[in-house]
Amino acid sequence: MNKKRDKKKFKRKNIKITNVELGDIDHYTDDEISEEKRAEKKLVEKGRISGKRNLKLERGRILEVRSNYKCLVKIGDEELICTLGGRFKQVNYETKGIVAAGDYVNIDVSGDPRIEEIIDRTNTLSRFSDNDFQIEIIIASNIHQVIITSSYKDPQLNLGLIDRYICAAKINNITPVICINKIDLVESLDDVKLMGSFYEKLGFKIIYTSVETGEGIEELRELLKDKDSVFSGHSGAGKSSLINKLQPDLKLRTAEISDYHRKGVHTTTRSRLLEWDFGGYLVDTPGIKTFGLHRKDKEKLKGIFPGLSVLTGECKFFNCTHSHEIKCGVKKAVENGSYPIARYESYLRILESL
Ligand SMILES: Nc1nc2c(ncn2[C@@H]2O[C@H](COP(=O)(O)OP(=O)(O)OP(=O)(O)O)[C@@H](O)[C@H]2O)c(=O)[nH]1
Ligand SMILES: [Mg+2]
Ligand SMILES: [Zn+2]
Q: Whose Cα sits closest to atom 16 in ligand 1?
């Protein structure tokens, strides 16, 4: 009897729908959207609060994510392996991992240590997967600055990648610091500094270092002191080497010298939060090939891309994207040579990717 009714119900719902045009999200009423949001919020609340009683909670910080359900956490002076409740999985659709190096967490230590709550992050350095889903990949959380580590050579300096990092840092309220490493391999440092002066003039901190000669290392140390920093950049740029140079007892694994011309070798395989002996923390991260931004931030791009916003006064259209429009202040600046064409092309590449 019941089965029959179920069948009927199913049948009724099984209507063929063809040629339905889904309207733009903007056309939905606020009510429809807030209904959805309410459901989402309910789910989040459910995940945030544990139903268990008699928890003995202690605050800790995630040093390393070992798997989706296991992390190394620092609680006081202790480092403990903690598990992460399956409950968290229900509320996580948008990020690749549930937790990240740098997260502050509350851990129930009444039994085997178990993460019960992830404290709201003040910020994250996140990139997004290249596919249509644009899944968020959190590189690190709760940090002050990102040390955008690039080598002058081996691998080749890539200013486009630096631009992407700067945009991501601005979106997430993180201070970008540009570090050009391996300057011992530079023929003319003046030429490199001329390139860097574009960023310097815009107020960005740029630092030239060599792990080989020690140049710039003390300047870098001053910048890192008492702050939480994440080192990120291409594989082989020298992130782990710089960190070892600053504090040799960390003994991070770095590539062999003979592996110089390697491609796609990732020596560091997991992000790891570590403590400086001169104050502050650092996150060493695995190298990345490219840094994907999220399409939801497309509108923001023209306001945050290095050096563009001051040129927009002369744009004819208030919503000029500085790409196909006529009478564009940015294009004019490129034409008269006051804005570098290479940076403009980098802007267009990012715009197109979104
Ligand atoms: N000549 C020169 N070589 C360097 C310098 N810094 C690092 N290297 C070399 O560059 C190679 C890569 O260094 P790593 O520190 O492993 O690079 P990484 O950025 O941590 O790489 P991943 O962990 O794969 O992301 C090693 O062979 C280092 O010895 C430098 O300032 N000058
Ligand atoms: Mg490394
Ligand atoms: Zn314009």
A: 254
- DSSP letters along 217-267, please? HHHHHHHHTTEEEEEEESTTSSHHHHHHHH-GGG------GGGTT-SS--S
SS3 (DSSP) at 35: helix
Q: Where are the domains of the chain?
A: 57-120, 125-284, 295-353
Which CATH number is 295-353 given?
A: 1.10.40.50
- Topology of domain 57-120, per CATH? OB fold (Dihydrolipoamide Acetyltransferase, E2P) (2.40.50)
Q: At what angle do helices 159-171 and 341-353 cross, to 10 degrees?
A: 60
The CATH T-level fold of domain 125-284 is: Rossmann fold (3.40.50)
Centre of ligand 3 to C-alpha 319, Å, is 8
Distance of CA 283 from the midpoint of ligand 2 (Å):
11
Q: What is the pLDDT of residues 318-353, one digit of tens each?
A: 999 999 999 999 999 999 999 999 999 999 999 999
Q: What pTM does this model have?
A: 0.85
